[in-house]
Amino acid sequence: MKMLSIWIQTARPRTLPLSVSGILMGLALSPNSGLSDPLVMLGCLLTTVLFQVLSNFANDLGDGMKGTDNSERIGPQRSVQSGKISVSSMKKAVVLLSFLSLLSAGLLLTAALPNLTAKALIFYLILSLLCVLAAITYTVGKKAYGYHGGGDLMVFLFFGWVAVLGTRHLYTPNFSLQEVLAATAIGAWSTMVLNLNNLRDVHNDKASGKNTLAVILGGMRGKWYHYFLYVLSSMAWISLLITAYLESRNPYLWFSGIPLIFCTMHIRKVSKIQHAKEYDPELKNIALSTFAAALLFFIFNLN
Predict the structure, then answer these.
(1) What is the number of structural domains in the chain?
(2) Three-state secondary structure along the chain?
(3) Does the pLDDT of residue 274 top 80, yes or no?
């Protein structure tokens, strides 16, 4: 039971709400909010959770092997770093999660097959492989993109655009402005979470040779970058709510804007932070605000 608890902790359950936020938005903007095909809905959620757990395992493995996770690191202790899970066992777990993720993606595409053209099917198959590759190579390998400032762009794309547009187009091929706005907002919020993590770890990452964007920009410019992401996400989300309201005349959609209040409070706190460890509590705040916004929009957009 103790070992099971360690593996569950290593899976980092607190990261899962953020990972499914883009899926919820993709479902909300799909015909009948995705409820017309519950198998596709469940498949999207399950596949995303598996991709996220794979990413968490691979991150633990990569940073642990490179020595980036060490006694100087702020935040939760990692399993490979602490020796609770061996490198060999974690490698096997990464292989297993890669297989399960691709299996889940394959079953999802099978369920969505009536809605897909041959070209779309091939695209999604390639995208599934890219998701696995991106999850692993963030920190694993000599050319891990997380060590060269590429993490922010990948989070913006995969948590935002891939999640929202990828989910919606499993139901319909029709393109809409709302999905672009939703993808941009969720992507920017998700990138804010990563930036907070990197601002927290900036000193240890720099010493370990992990050149995140926060390390490249430096502390103060890293904060200004954070403010930019806040403005981008807020503008995209407000624009989404306006266009969605004008289309549906559903007044309850405005409740989806409540999390913006907490995002603004978060920015005020960030502006006053003086020490790296003070960023840690803010990760949960912005992640849960993102999830709340997506969940509220999904609920109030049900038709």
Answers:
(1) 1
(2) CHHHHHHHHHCCHHHHHHHHHHHHHHHHCCHHHHCCCHHHHHHHHHHHHHHHHHHHHHHHHHHHHHCCCCCCCCCCCCHHHHCCCCHHHHHHHHHHHHHHHHHHHHHHHHHHHHHCCHHHHHHHHHHHHHHHHHHHHCCCCCCCHHHECCHHHHHHHHHHHHHHHHHHCCCCCCCCHHHHHHHHHHHHHHHHHHHHHHHHCHHHHHHHCCECHHHHHCHHHHHHHHHHHHHHHHHHHHHHHHHHHHHHCCHHHHHHHCHHHHHHHHHHHHHHCCCHHHHHHHHHHHHHHHHHHHHHHHHHCCC
(3) yes
